[in-house]
# Entry
Amino acid sequence: MFDPIDIAITLGKILLVFMVIMTMAAYLVLAERKLLGYIQDRIGPNRVGPFGIWQPLADAIKLFTKEDFKPAGADKWLFYLAPAMAAIPAIMIFAVIPFGAPLTLFGRQVTMQVSDLNVGLLLFVAFSSIAVYGVALGGWASNSKYALLGSIRGLAQLISYEISMGLSLVPVVMLARSFQLSEIVGAQEGCWFIVYQPLAFIIFMISILAECKRVPFDIPEAEGEIVAGYHTEYSGMRFSLFFVGEYINIVVLGGLAATFFLGGWHGPFLPPVLWFFIKVLAVAFLFIWIRGTLPRMRYDQLMMFCWKVLTPLALLNILATAWFILLKG
Amino acid sequence: MSVINDTKAIVIGMWTTWKHIFRRPVTLQYPEEKRIPYPRYRARIVLTRDPDGGERCVACYLCSAACPVDCISMQSAATEEGRRYALWFRINFSRCIFCGLCAEACPTMAIQMTPDFEICNRDIMNLVYEKEDLLIDGCGKSPEYNFYHHAGIGVTQRRGAGLEEKPPVDVRSLMP
# Structure
């Protein structure tokens, strides 16, 4: 029933994926600082090692040695729980993302995916909903008005954009005829879904930008308005869990964008894992580039854009796709 | 169509930032590369000497009076021949705001600003500069000026010996 080699392989994959994601998230911070520097005609961090290559390490040392501070009157357990609630679901989502073609090692089929759930897409939607709790509880437990304001904003934003994100994925499911991410990737072997569903792709990208709480949609942590939003009161490692969680989110959502619309690990010439990496990094680059360019939206603009533009468009897109599929038979 | 205009605006903005990625950064890597300030940059203050090597400062207290943060203090004294000098002269650079009013107030061009801006220190007491630390060997920005060739009549030179000064008139020989 339970093959010990299977379990060992799965544990190995979990470890690998965890390490790779954490490293990617750490270096994404560096990449973002570098790239923003170049966009602003600066150099960016370059003091720790050549080209600042050990900057994430220095940051980690700094964050680990900082005081673990809890504000007076804060709800202790929720305050301690919230950062984990924000970071862990983001990592967990990666369990269902196929990051490479299945390998055959010693006559054994090894899928490049921690767990090939048949409802992988639903799991992703569910986990991204759980991540909302990190924001909500963090802001609520801090006993600070700025944190609370940030978490209220974050709650409304994340829940709203989850709807447009979920709706933009429905055409993908209709085309692939499966919730299983490996089958969605398999369905894109000939042609990426971005070709069939450019509108859904744009809606998905905008929605995951809002899900990551990144720049044009960063009102939950709008510095200059509400200090740092829901993580105002956090310091040290707890803050960095929120912070790293955000970058893990970028990696994971980049991976999902690649899986749903950019053909997953399919691609010519290069090995599949590399193709997947390139696509994830391309999405991450786009996010950083957008952050270097666009100003923050106003709160009412954000809500209006979601409910009056993205959601109706996504619904129309579903109808059009359904009609097309029905005609095709 | 606002959608088209907005999309255009976003694309133009993205294109602008894209171009800036490849532009040369304007950053100066400070401890390795140093910016050379202009000659009239106002940084560390020095006390200069006149061309003959004597101290220019006559301890008139005008600089310490002009100083808005009161960082200059001194004690005046006079030599036997009557020439004034500063017994001690002290500038507290931890208070100095480098406004240059002292240099402007100085009648003998003794106190001058230099472009040397690197006077950071770990110990704040090291920022209190005494006269020995302030005095330099050169003449600073006014190489020819010597106060006592223009003034100080009867102290360091006899009457009528200064530059741009006519000898005193002998009233007995001044006949029509």
About this structure: Residues 119 and 195 of chain A are 24 Å apart (CA to CA). Chain A has a mean pLDDT of 84. The interface with chain B takes residues 35, 37-43, 289-290, 292-294 of chain A (CB under 8 Å). Chain A has one domain: 4-328.
